[in-house]
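Re: weekly structure request thread

Next one in the queue (514 aa):
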Amino acid sequence: MSDMMISAGIGLAAGGAVGFFFERLRRGASYQDRDQILEQAKRDAETLKRDEELKAREELLKKREEMEASLNDTRDGLHQRERDLDKREGGLDDRDEEFIKREKMIEGQQQKLTTRVKAMEVKEKELDRLLSEEQEKLFQISSLTPDQAKVLLLDRLDRQLKDETGGLILKYESELKNRQEELSREILGMAIQRIASAQTSEMTVSTVDIPNDEMKGRIIGREGRNIRAFEKIAGVDVIVDDTPGVVVVSAFDKVRREIARLSLIKLIEDGRIHPTRIEEVVNETEKEMDAHIRKLGLEACHEANIVGLHEKLVYLMGRMQFRTSYSQNVLRHSIEVSHITGLLCEQVGLDSTLGRRCGFLHDIGKAADHEMEGGHPAVGAELLKRYNEGEEVVHAAAGHHDDIRPEFIYTVLVAAADAASASRPGARRENLERYVKRLEDLEAIACGFPGVNHAFAVQAGREIRIIVDSNRVNDRESAKLAKECAGAIEENLTYPGEVKVVVLRETKVVEHAR
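Done, posted below.
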């Protein structure tokens, strides 16, 4: 037992010694590793420190090189600028010298000019003195007074100027005529060709077809009461004569005449013709006619491309469908003038919309001239002003017949378009007295000039041929006479289109050989 305990104690002691030995070994190794790690760390730190110092030095060197390069560039720039300034300074010095030279030259020239001006003044005085002496000598030689010499000189100058004026007129008139005829043909030709429309003559009476002659008795009624009632209510005259199958309705107002015609057609178709029925039918037709007139006015505005027109003006334009001027329908004429004016405005660079409006409304006074005092230009201008139309439109209506002085170019274009629409073949009919009067006035104006033997109006007044005395009027004076005659016609006569003035001069010499 004791041996076992001793053995156990020895074993425990041996185990503790071994454990202590191994613990000492472990601790020694740990201290050795720590020292090595610390040593290694110191070496690494030294290495890092040296690397950072090297990097810092490299960056410092790099920045130093960059700064030196920048400094070198700045220095080069300053040197270059200094050289440029030196050049400029040299140039300024040269310019100063040049300016000094120029000033000296100008001073010299001014002195020369002053000297020449003084010399010229002296020469002018001397020339005036010599001219006065020469004039006195001429008066003494010719035995003429100054007034007589002046008259003689002016007469000679007048003859020379007439010859020269005639020559210049012939020259420039030929050039101008070629150019203006070309332009006018182009502008008016394009405008009229693009708007050319058919025209029909209209009468002042309307006819109504009836199925048989017995209907005439029903229209007249017992003791004429039906026809009297119809004429009183409709405001027209009804002519029932021996013409078979026709009854004639006559009235100055075409609207009333159209209402009466339509009413009579309705009564004939209905068969009931008595005063009460007549009044009903006429009133019904008047309402239908008002609506029809407004529709005609709106259609005309649409055709002429006119917008924003007052309702009353639209109605008045529709009424002009039933108005004629020398057998030409006034509404169709207004639409045609609107289109021509718009095209002329396009050709000359003006507002074509305003031009169409001026042309469309220029004759609106004809729709109300029987209700208001004055001619249709003044009536139309008053209506347009009342319904807030523009100044150009009002002035075109008032001045398209040259009643007032044109203030707007649109008035002149409307007058030209109005003349073009009215004067083209088939558009209007002119009464014989007015036609003959116009021809007589043309011939009278031409015969009023000195040196004219005869004057003949031909081509329906479109041309006047003037025969002059060859002993009193030469070729150059003929050109001047034609110009003056054309101006007198423009000033004193009103006519559509243009009048051609032809001056004829002939020298005839007869000799006999015996």
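DSSP finds 14 helices and eight strands in the chain. Residues 196-203, 425-430 have pLDDT under 50 and may be disordered.
Next request, please.
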